[in-house]
Amino acid sequence: MRALFSPDSRLMRVMSRVGDLMVLNLLFLLTCVPVVTIGAASSSLYTVCFRFGTDREGSLIRTYFAAFREDFRRSTLLWLAALVCGAAACVNTYVLYLLPGALRWGSVLFAILFVLALLISSYLFPLCSQFGGSVWETARNALILSLGYLPRSVLMVALNVLPFALMLFDFYRFLQLGFVWAALYFSAAAYANTFLLKKIFAPYLQETSEKEVHP
Predict the structure, then answer these.
(1) Is 37 in contact with 194 (CB distance < 8 Å)?
(2) pTM here?
(3) CA distance 120 to 147
(4) Cα separation of 61 and 171, whole Å?
(5) Distance from C-alpha of 56 to C-alpha of 66, rounded to nearest angstrom
(6) Phi/psi zone of residue 6: left (φ > 0), alpha (ψ -120 to 50 degrees), beta?
(7) For 100-157, how does the pLDDT look when each residue is reduced to its tens digit (9 = 90+)?
(8) For residues 205 and 130, is the Cβ–Cβ distance under 8 A?
(9) Are 53 and 198 within 8 A, CB to CB?
(10) Which of 31-40, 68-77, 99-108 has the lowest mean pLDDT?
């Protein structure tokens, strides 16, 4: 029993990581409040998650805010571009679906574009957190990877949109799970996504060439 609760036991390591994820989730939600900063917050979230369990882990809070400052411009531009494209595709899907006759079939095209925007968005901020490059290069690489690793991409999208899908289709259940969203979900989803992404990024990401973030 004493060994079970020792600092080096598996149980205590898991509990410690859950605690880290709860702190990270709170930081993420707080820095998402202005809405325009969601991109920088997402990039910072992935920066910390990718460092978990490595010798680069360091201070969670300092690493988060250092990445937030360093990636702010590029991640914000990526977020705004993704938001505009996704919103435009979503609105056009809805409007065309309401039209009579053959015009309704135009909604299918925009629905596909909306799904594509979700797939690309799942890679934008992990890429931003781990690689340099311009906004255009990051978006292009996100498109290539999202289609090249489609099964993983679909799983990542499912993790990312679950709370919002539940809010739209079962608002009561969404409210019941409010504590989960507020306490843990977003950081835990990002942490789970890093395990899917590490194998994808491995051929391109070398320890010596990884983008440095100085806390």
Answers:
(1) no
(2) 0.89
(3) 8
(4) 32
(5) 14
(6) beta
(7) 877 788 899 999 999 999 999 999 999 999 998 899 999 999 999 999 999 999 999 9
(8) yes
(9) no
(10) 99-108
